[in-house]
Amino acid sequence: MTVNVPLYQAKAELFRTLGHPVRIRVLELLQAGPRPVHELLAEIDVESSNLSQQLAVLRRAGLVSSSRDGAAVLYTLSTPAVAQLLLSGRRILASMLADQEGLLAELRESADTV
Amino acid sequence: MTVNVPLYQAKAELFRTLGHPVRIRVLELLQAGPRPVHELLAEIDVESSNLSQQLAVLRRAGLVSSSRDGAAVLYTLSTPAVAQLLLSGRRILASMLADQEGLLAELRESADTV
DNA sequence: ACCGTATATGAAGACTTCTTCAAGTGATGT
DNA sequence: ACATCACTTGAAGAAGTCTTCATATACGGT
Description:
disordered C terminus
């Protein structure tokens, strides 16, 4: 999937994989170390089958890997480089919010989700 | 769009915005400085109306801003932090390819685009 | 005023991704 | 062997994104 494909396309796929709130939360939780699914489930507000689906997306993309631990399944970040990426994301958001402070009022005039 | 919304959702939206090959290429080209649309068009293999659509996505997300320069329109990165993010992306890809070198053969058995 | 080049926009259909549901597997305790 | 807990999977409709086409706007030159 990330192999044998133009670089910018592989990059787009990587970012697209991160483009989902549940997947972001999973990766953030996994930064602190491996965790079983039921712990993730306790912290993320989502149905268990949905969480499984999203974990499968992360697995296919190679961002996490899983291993069985008794009845539980442990998930682990495949590379600590993921933490860097999330950090950069946080920085951009911060820098954009700073820039846009003046626009706040204007934005609030339209509906929340616009 | 990035305002008034849980942080992890804002982050997901940011990453989703990056999740398109044309948009990635645009951002990478803009790292070197502002550029008019026709120059981007010359380097990215895409129809001009499609490029416009993708530029609009980047504008709405606040990642770039545009200004007119005569008949041309110049696009600029809104924040240099974007460069960091792209760099992190590149690093992850590198570290994943390194990990997966052993899987190369296996992957090549399936079709190119799988 | 008109033409050409540069760019943007709206709308429609194809395509992809999301969520949910029902059913499935595997491990543990009784 | 059975029940239960932990997790995964496949399928289907809803929702979202992409690409393309036709049309629109802005500017500069003649």
